[in-house]
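Researcher: Hi, I'm a grad student and pretty new to this. My advisor asked me to get structures for two proteins we've been looking at. I'm not sure of the right format, so I'll just paste the first sequence and hope you can take it from there.
Model: That works fine. Here's the first sequence with its structure tokens right after it:
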Amino acid sequence: MSVKQLQPIGDFPPTGLFRRLFAAGYDLLLLLAALMVATLIYLSVHIWISGEAAAHAEAEQGAYVGDPILTLVVVLITIGFYSWFWTKKGQSLGMQAWRIRLQQPDGRSISGRQALVRLAVAQLSWLCGGLGFLWQLWDRESRTWHDIASDTRLVTLPKGTFKD
């Protein structure tokens, strides 16, 4: 997908830590709902193929814990969820609710590569106890590790930006 100039155009302030985290929490709830539906579909197909008794026996033995196919489905849905929202218009649903936009420093939408780098480094930020997010408190431009690695910025849009 090619990058495009995002609307509205302007020099918007960087997004603060709490607003970032609240939007991430909102998105996490939406992502978990999508993952629950995907898991339900996956298990339903598995039960349909192997039969209810066999599937129940496998579940009792813990066969679905760490299932490589289900793990792949979860990873692909997670990547797809964020990549699609971020590259399409720079906002996931949680970001829209909190008036946050993800963009390149010049205000254009991000590329698919930037979305993948951002998502991967954001996971590392969480795995380091959130240090990658806290980094914004010391960075002169209020950037997190994933902002720096992907050369992207989160900006806060003004109130009433999308009202007609």
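Researcher: Oh nice, that was easy. Here's the second one.
Model: And its structure:
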Amino acid sequence: MSAQFQNRLVGTVVIVALGVIFLPDLLDGKKQREVEQFTEIPLRPVITEQAKDDIGEGYKPETFEVEEIAQTQDLVSSSEETVEQAQTEPAKKPTNTQTQQVAKSEPVEKKATPIKAGYTLQLGGFNNAKNVEGLVKQLRQNGFTAYTLPAKPIDGSLTKVFVGPDLSADKLKTQQQKIKKITGLQGKIVKYNPLEN
């Protein structure tokens, strides 16, 4: 390598290094610095030990009495005592009979009976909204109660077509044969869920 090329290379490296070091500070400008004010924490005070004379000769440390913890009460026996008191005190009979009824009554569990919602005939699921609307229109013109899920068909999303609902699956089976003749769709009978609408 020639000496002139080495000098230029070293000079270029020095200039690039200075630019990398000082250029960010020059481009950022002056930054406002907030100086946080710290308060000094005072030093721990020096505690001198007290001599025994400072306390006094007649000093006695405090004594504490330990009390026993109260025992738990049995609720069954206390309710029996209230029943006995009700029988022995006739003057307070109305209020004690109420406590007797409260003590003797057991929580009543009500069993929820499932609602029989019936059956419906599912004819199929379709993606074309025009086909769904045409099928529903054809079914309604022939006297069938037809509905779709979702209620308004959207083109490109699956829309199910139903006929019904009815409490009798046998009635839907007879309608299924009529619908097959009209539309060519067999369909299947499924349980009707009123919460889907």
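Researcher: Is there anything I should tell my advisor about the second?
Model: You could mention this: The first strand starts at residue 119 and ends at 126.
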